[in-house]
Predict the structure.
Amino acid sequence: MLIAGNWKMFKGPEEAGVFCRALRDADLGEVDVVVCPPYVSLGEAVGALAGTEIGVAAQNVHWAAEGAFTGEISAPMLRELGVYVAIVGHSERRQLFGETDETVVRRALAAIEHGLHVIACVGETEAEREAGETGSVLRRQVGAIAAGLNEAGVAETDELVIAYEPVWAIGTGKTATPEMAQEAHALVKSILNVPVLYGGSVKPENAYELASQPDVDGALVGGASLDLESFATICREASHS
Ligand code: 13P
């Protein structure tokens, strides 16, 4: 069970340091824990969590090792900082910053090739769910990642986790029912047999029920990961599931 806190564009270095030092002493149950600060706070988080089991992830990573790509960060740069995990394909990147299945696959493959673990996000919009297209969207998004892994000869990777994040549940307070999450996770796993995290308004109150589903292997938590007590409670709830 993996609980990852995606901070999005919150917590600069100072706040990140304070949070991570407190996280060291928090009761997080028996789950694996990762925090995903903004780029500028990664170094502070790595330093504050050194010597603990808590991982630090970047929120994105470019496919090139270096080059003329203004505003981007590469996998070797993250490794140099002590960061060994990266999120790719978050729906905010897909919706607001032009990320496509193709760029998501390129980012994921390059990260894996450079020795990073990857959390690749997929999920349908509200309109797609209402149109009955959830299955076809997931097959397209996960299928693109599976095809990319196959072509690169790394089909059996241990470095990849998928996060199923229905777009309509992100930051809205609307959560997928445990049954909806289970159905989507089972579909994802039928295409690519990797652990699948659920994301979308995960809170202390719903973490146990979601994490109890057989194909839910953890959570990618946004807003509720910014508060220490709420994040620690989610970790403990998932731990009991
Ligand atoms: P919320 O938990 O704020 O809905 O965000 C989910 C998310 O996007 C995590 O990546």
About this structure: The longest strand covers residues 117-122.
